[in-house]
Amino acid sequence: MHRRRGPNFTYVSGCVKYMIFVLNFIFWLFGGLMIAIGLYAFIDKWQATGLIKLDTIYDVMLNISLLIALLGGVVFIVSFAGCVGALRENTCLLKFYSLCLLILFLVEMGGAVCGFVFPRSLHGLLELSFTERIVHAYRDDPDLQNFIDFAQSDFHCCGLTSDGYMDWAKNEYFNCSSPSVERCGVPFSCCINATDISSGLVNIMCGYGVQNSPVAEASKRVWTSGCIEIVRSWAERNLYMIASVALGVALSQLFVIYLAKTLEGQIELQKARWQT
């Protein structure tokens, strides 16, 4: 015989319910912080430059402050749905939440599969198109310029593709036909020794005229390899670590989806009990 359940019995597990709530509350706060930082940087740049170009999808993707705000908005909305759905035991919000997590998981898996399946020639075409946009917008967007300078100086690279430092020939300020004093040069962040030892100041002229030099001679002054190749080499050397982190993230997402679906099923059982 089954033991008779008391009047206070509930199918909804408090452990599952509040675990989902706490996890999503943390991400909700993080999403709000991302929105605040992104909007602050976006408005500050707008006031400083007076012009922000958002004509194409590339303009949005290369606008770092706006991209942070948009990603923060997605995190904010999805985690808010998880918080309220768990706290108020709302199955509609929980279904929306688990669906968003499932879509994110499938996008991540699709990106990983495409990275292994697509031929390198196709990767090269995508890199070339994206490189031209990034290099061309180097001086037009202060946030993008700071990000590129940070990446080149920290990863010891110059440019993006396998052309390396010659990628900067695509920029209107650094190509050799430019009337600028920077013609045939590269940004100072490409220089091996950009900081003057005696004064401690950055020598912004250290990369001037380097495009006129062959690779052997240019390598004495600047980093000649493209950043994508450097990052790809680092990823290949640390493949097991990256795979472990990716597996951990994927399993965590699946676990949270499982919790959401479990809570959703418990709420449905509780509703059925009330109806009967």
Structural features, described:
This protein is mostly helical. Helix content is 64%, strand content 0%. It contains nine helices and no strands. It has helices at residues 14-49, 57-62, 64-87, 91-117, 120-136, 142-155, 215-218, 227-237, 239-275. Helix 1 runs antiparallel to helix 3 (64-87), helix 3 (64-87) crosses helix 4 and helix 4 (91-117) packs antiparallel against helix 9 (239-275). The chain is elongated. The mean pLDDT is 82. InterPro entries: Tetraspanin/Peripherin, Tetraspanin_animals, Tetraspanin_CS. Belongs to the tetraspanin (TM4SF) family. Keywords: Cell junction, Cell membrane, Cytoplasm, Disulfide bond, Glycoprotein, Membrane, Transmembrane, Transmembrane helix. The chain crosses the membrane at residues 21-43, 63-84, 96-118, 239-260. It is found in: Cell junction, Adherens junction; Cell membrane; Cytoplasm.
Key terms:
276 residues; mainly alpha
Note the topology.
Elements: H1 14-49, H2 57-62, H3 64-87, H4 91-117, H5 120-136, H6 142-155, H7 215-218, H8 227-237, H9 239-275
Helix pairs in contact: 1-3, 3-4, 4-9
Shape: elongated
* SS content category: mainly alpha
* Major sheet characteristics: none
Helix content: 55-70%
Number of helices: 9
How big a fraction of the residues is strand?
under 5%
Radius of gyration: 26 Å
What's the end-to-end separation, in Å? Answer: 20 Å
SSE order = HHHHHHHHH
What is the number of beta strands?
0
Instruction: Catalogue the unreliable spans.
Output: none
Round the mean pLDDT to the nearest integer and report it. 82
